[in-house]
Amino acid sequence: MLTLEGTVEEIIYQNESNGYTVAILETEDDVVTIVGYIPIINIGETLRVQGEWTYHANYGQQFNVETYSTVVPATLNGIEKYLSSGLIPGIGPKTAKKIVEKFGRDSLDILQYNPDKLKEVDGIGPKKANKIAEAFQEQRELRDVMIFLQQYGISPSYGIRIYKKYGNETIAKIKENPYRLSEDVFGIGFKMADKIARNMGVDLRSPYRINAGIKFTLMESSSEGHTYIPREELINKATSILEVEKELVEEGLTSLALKQEIHIENMDDEVSVYYMPFYYAETNVTKKIIELSQGEVKELDIDVDQEIQNLEEENSIKFANNQKEAIKEAVKNGVLVITGGPGTGKTTTINSIIKLFEENDLTVSLAAPTGRAAKRMTEATGKEAKTIHRLLEYTYVDEEMGMAFAKDEGTPIEENVVIIDEVSMVDILLMNNLLKAILPGTRLILVGDVDQLPSVGPGNVLRDIIDSKVVKVVKLNEIFRQAQESMIVVNAHRVNKGEKPHLNVKDKDFFFMRRNNGKDIVNTIVELCNERLPNFYGYDPVKDIQVLAPMKKGDTGINSLNQQLQSVLNPKNPMKEEKETNQFTFRVGDKVMQIKNNYRAEWVIRENGKVVEEGEGVFNGDFGYVKDIDNEESEMIVVFDDNKEVTYNFSQLDELKLAYATTIHKSQGSEFPVVVMPINWGPPMLLTRNLLYTAITRAKELVVLVGMEKYLYMMIRNNRIIKRYSGLNKRLFKFFDVRKREM
Ligand SMILES: Nc1ncnc2c1ncn2[C@@H]1O[C@H](COP(=O)(O)OP(=O)(O)OP(=O)(O)O)[C@@H](O)[C@H]1O
């Protein structure tokens, strides 16, 4: 094998996920192309490579790298290049030059041992000096971690994530139990952890491995919405994932149950296995729902019929019978569910309920599961609605613990009435946290549309509560005249009942454009967003129009749509800064979405350049647009609803994605003036009636469907509600029965 040593002049290509690199190396007497798996190199670095010369038909002579090691750059030029390569946030080409001018060959030593001195460089204040020092230190540690991980075949992009989670304890933690990666690190599943562990020599039959595989199987099913999984199904799945004998998995189940990491339960001829947090949540939700619905609420000394009549007079309307019933039941019960589709008078009813309670000196608090839904509730009721998280006064503890809620059994929500909107989106864990903070005596009113898609997280909470028949449910089903003016409302109800929608009624708000293949569908959608809708209706393509698709992949999936829409709505432009990540090219002006809750992200609101408000937290599903990209500082600024500005370091860009198009699942709880949706073939599992129903009910003013009618009708006919394993319904029913029998 031959050895070469030189300075990395240029990185021509690097595959971020596997580290395959093509780079130019300047040796003492030559400039050569090197190729191979060299994930952790930076421009300006001195590299020692071992390998062989090869000849490539197109590219000529190349040095094929087998192994390599890096040496910190020694020449002034090398140091400057190294610092300006974008490696250290806060240092771009200009700052790098100044640092090297000031400290010469000692630059890197200063960064490492004496960063305080950086303040002597023109333009670097104490804050920036600190930030640079921290980043440099991190870079050092990261390098060690990367070299460690590299030997087990972990790509640099995952290496960074792992390091973010464990910091300087990375190596120790992974050596102890590599399987913890799959529980702790976003994006690393059991399979990758397993690969690492196997490379480290962990035995196929090791209990660590078996237990991790079982937990992985459980977590995977929870990501499909299940709170438990039948024992047999779990054993089969885990056995095939682990590729070991069934008996080992059975033993694993027993040992996990003994450690109380899982719960195994016999319920109605079925043995179910729960991951512990879901079991606790489900049993506690059951207990609290029963307690609240059977507990006494303070009686109001009023004549409800008279009150209802007064409300009718004040609003100059006559309530439908169901609306009256809802108002009466709200007064009587500890828990009430109000459900109904669009335009059935939910908001009108809630407003009347709020009024009635407040006039009788009861305090009322409003909340909804997402920021957008809370905002809409605020607008519809004229009274502040919070997110459920804020109602519970969440605080971020740390990476390990995640979040904590200040409101719980000990410090309950001190309100007489709590009304939650969009309950179909609430999963079992959030419902548990909410109910913990509500004591008997408080009236809880759950409002939602049970025909929407269920929550993204595990559980089937609203549907189960309704089906269990243990709490009072009022279903609003009359579509009021005003609402009937809207084809969106009328068609939503038709779709929900399995009927064909009215398409293309003149002067209405619901259109279908026939296109016979994926390519035409995409072209039409792009043209609608770029020309027709802005030109004829004055809609802003980024702010007003949302493309919603059932799928991520395929030619009419959101990945392809986002690319096409970006290239037309916000094309490449020398005046607009860009930042390329391994998934997207973000450009100033792009529409983006946060895809992960980040409780610590700091935001500011500015008016005339001055900060007028600041706070923390951006959440999964929040929409924003890219205001600025600073390649010198390695930062991108995104503006979310209410003009909240969040600054992302480039290393955090995996929290964002392009959002010209988004999946219908991600759109839950949001509303948009215009919804455009491709109607194309897809797996029948995915193309369901409630998916279509959810998509069209997201639109306030206009729906345009583009594609093939047969698939529209296929969706409407596909009333299969994907089965979710959830024990809440059964539990409520059973527990309730027992109580009744005791009485
Ligand atoms: N009893 C009633 N008589 C006449 N009109 C009513 C009555 N109740 C509600 N409406 C009207 O029907 C329309 C829909 O009502 P509302 O907004 O309360 O429904 P919603 O279920 O909240 O709808 P969405 O879910 O679409 O927001 C409104 O214009 C409202 O003023």
UniProtKB/TrEMBL annotation:
Keywords on record: ATP-binding, DNA-binding, Helicase, Hydrolase, Isomerase, Nucleotide-binding
Origin superkingdom: Bacteria
SUPFAM superfamilies: P-loop containing nucleoside triphosphate hydrolases (SSF52540), RuvA domain 2-like (SSF47781)
Top EC category: isomerase
InterPro entries with a match to the protein in the record: AAA+_ATPase, Coronavir_polyprotein_1ab, Hlx-hairpin-Hlx_DNA-bd_motif, P-loop_NTPase, RecD2, RecD2-like_HHH, RecD2_N_OB, RecD2_SH13
UniProt cross-references to Pfam families, sorted A to Z: AAA_19, HHH_RecD2, OB_YrrC, SH3_13, UvrD_C_2
GO molecular function, one term: ATP hydrolysis activity
The reaction(s) this protein catalyses: ATP + H2O = ADP + phosphate + H(+)
The Helix-hairpin-helix DNA-binding motif class domain, residue ranges: 81-102, 116-135
Biological processes, Gene Ontology terms: DNA recombination; DNA repair
Chain sites annotated for binding ATP: 343-347
Record family assignment: Belongs to the RecD family. RecD2 subfamily.
Protein name: ATP-dependent RecD2 DNA helicase
Upper lineage: Bacteria, Bacillati, Bacillota, Tissierellia, Tissierellales
Gene that specifies this protein: recD2
